[in-house]
Each structure stands twice: as structure tokens, then as C-alpha cells.
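Need C-alpha cells for this chain, all 85 residues.
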Amino acid sequence: MDRKAILNELKKVLAPYTEDKTILEGINEQTDLIKDLKINSANLVDIIIDAESQYNIEIDFDAAEKMYNVGNCIDVIAEKMNRTA
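Here are the C-alpha cells for all 85 residues:
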């Protein structure tokens, strides 16, 4: 799965936690989950759990700490997917 495909799937994971759904259409790798998408920090845990389920991966604490913007989320997901492939 390439970065664009991961991004498209990630939008689906982020959608329930993003109040303004129109922002999701324009997200890119620099989009900050908290500042730009207005996702609260408590929901970040839910997003990680949903991403684990969506991509059939396990995200450890160290990797989860890196997931503060879209690009980092893609990096972590791609890395974990490559390990399980």
C-alpha cells in the first residue's frame, strides 16, 4: 500500500473525530491532528486503536507518540505494515 492509499484510508479513520469534515478533503502530510483537525488528545488514543484495526497492525507506545501529524501517521502505519507483510 503506497502513501496515497494509506492517506485515503486514514481520512476514514480520522473522520469520526473531526468536527469539520470539509477539512479532511484538504489534508496533507503536514496537517496537525490537534491544531488543524481540532482532534482532542483523548481521541488520539481512539484513532490509534481504529488505525490498528483498519490496517491490521499493532502500534506500540513509542510509535504512537510520533503520530501527531498526518505524515507521521503514514510513516508509522507504513512501517508497521511492512513488518507484518
